[in-house]
Amino acid sequence: MERELYGRExxxxxxxxxxxxxxxxPHGSRRIVCEHDDDPPVAVLTGGRGMGKTAxxxxxxxxxxxxxxxxxxxxxxxxxxxxxGPGWTPVTGVLPELATQLTARVHAARPVPFPRLSLGLVxxxxxxxxxxxxxxxxxxxxxxxxxxATVDTRGDAATGWVTKVxxxxxxxxxxxxxxxxxxxxxxTVETVLEETFNRFQRRAADWYGTYPHAGGxxxxxLRQLAVDFERGGDLRRRAEDHLVLALVADLVRAYRGMARxxxxxRRPVLLLDNAHTPLGRQLVEPLLRQRAxxxxxxxxxxxxxRIHDHTGLSHAVRRRLPEVAHASHWAxxxxxxxxxxxxxxxxxxxxxxxxxxxxxxxxxRTPAGLARGVHRLTGGRPLGVALxxxxxxxxxxxxxxxxxxxxxxxxxxxxxxxxxxxxAELLERLLPxxxxxxxxxxxxxxxxxxxxxxxxxxxxxxxxxxxxxxxxRDALRSEDWPVGPDHFVADPLLRALLLHxxxxxxxxxxxxxxWRAVHETLRSAYATGGACPSEPHRLHQxxxxxxxxxxxxxxxxxxxxxGVPAWLDALxxxxxxxxxxxxxxxxxxxxxxxxxxxxxxxxxxRDALTGLDERAAExxxxxxxxxxxxxxxxxxxxxxxxxVIDKMAHELRQLSGRHPxxxxxxxxxxxxxxxxxxxxxxxxxxxxxPGPDGSGAPGGGGPDA
Length: 705
Prior knowledge:
Blueprint (H helix, E strand, L loop, with lengths): L8 H4 L4 H6 L19 E5 L6 H12 L5 E5 L15 H13 L12 H11 L8 H10 L1 H4 L8 H15 L8 H16 L22 H14 L1 H23 L13 E5 L4 H15 L7 E6 L11 E4 L19 E5 L5 H11 L9 H9 L3 H13 L8 H5 L2 E2 L8 E2 H9 L5 H7 L5 H11 L8 H12 L13 H13 L8 H14 L8 H10 L4 H11 L4 H11 L15 H6 L7 H7 L4 H20 L8 H17 L4 H16 L27
Parallel strand pairs: 1-4, 1-6, 2-3, 3-4, 5-6
Antiparallel strand pairs: 7-8
Helix pairs in contact: 4-11, 5-9, 5-10, 5-11, 6-8, 8-9, 9-10, 10-11, 11-12, 13-14, 13-15, 14-15, 17-21, 18-21, 19-20, 19-22, 22-23, 24-25, 24-28, 28-29, 29-30
């Protein structure tokens, strides 16, 4: 079934990248002129987990599978069979799968045969055969049955070959110095050619005459291929590369010399998911080298890479997705990898998120700002958008939803699986194979130093000296997740999911033992005399733990001092603390009542006013309201509240009149911070300053700790 993909029009439009590289429009199968007619690039879609790379490839397969030969493999998921034998490697395992998919019948075209690939695979499979072990040969040939069937449709053809091959071995007088692998391969190839290939197909063996040391003799080339494969190392890599080119050669032969229009489309399509892996590179690089040397093959290749910047893309032509909507702007350079067009998948914009939410909530029952809130929380990452939109559409009380509540929702992602919690499903798919128990603890850290501190104090079972923090850092970087000085886990969505897990993993409200222990550890480390003393960081941790009075007192004491920009930045950083939210809470956010001055001070807060004169007490209460307003409005799990925004602006203007020297800066904050919030930007510093993209400054994080 065709999926609804948002923000990918540059690929799937009628003149988009897919149409221009295949010669067929995805919808309606209309022929168009191929871009780079004689020399197409390998299109590599780049982006981290959850950016929709796999979804794009699956959609391409769905749209083109009936109109042109197409094959999709996940290079990260190729697994050996139960009894692989010495002739199996990831390359020899995946090539038959590609050939089998490419052979599937499409409209108005004969299936593509793979005689060159069949011969090469049979030759390397034979390296494990012995005269006394007929069963091994039977198993290997049976496993190659689907690709051999592209040449010989008789289902039982392989059974008869085995006996004849082994009979030839027993009867032959072979040079005792010659490698056994070569002898078996030669006998096997001769038998296959005699028994299966017709007189036209037998010429396919001549293609192997170009193999090193073959001297133009295809049978010698196949024998040497098997010998190199058995020897391993670089020689095996050479043999495997030649097998990849055998697949290419068969596709070229199937499309060359045919009458115009004999096949729909001008290019068969290879889809290689996770091509940044060693297997993916082994499939792509022989093709790139051959094209760089001047060979032409007319194959459309779409691959994906989770790693944006690795050596396999060192000289690729790089474009962002919107830039290739109507032309790729690609030209081959002198380097081999310049044959790659690396297309960076961009996040979805707020309009795409609105469309996704409308699809799941056609009656518009969710709050008007929820789509923008989901966009802010997910950063437009398609996987996050899809699951949160589905959760919103299936929620029991959609009218009260905020982004944080969606993480607690349960959705059905597949019919063969029980419903799953959104937060847990997102974490599993964004961090597969990682340890969320370790990562959720380290997500509370601000920088590498505090991450190592948490590792040595809270993760002793995983690390005695804090090395686990460095291992996690390297693991995140290897998956292209950002790691920064302000937040050890720098991606906002990933950090929110990990902190959500840290908060609720114990299922022990109201104590939240692990959450409290982690943040108490950080609070102690930031206190005077701690491992990394920092008053803003200590107060940030106090707020995480739900303690507000020290924060308000600190802001009051330092309010009249020079340096209002630093004071505002401290307010912004302290108030960026995660809110200790009760599980499944859907009622009014308690911070709202405090921000609007509708909740009386607690006994502890009244104690803080003791001894203050009327003016200082008034300032204290004013800063209490301001702190809670900024805390609520900065929370990516909440939604901006217009009344609270207006109240925040009012408090800042009142403070502007009270400050002896910093009234202009406070007035600017009262003007620009509401604008930042209404435009879904983080609070700018200094107020009104543009961010790196010109749309608003990023949030602060204080010093690395």
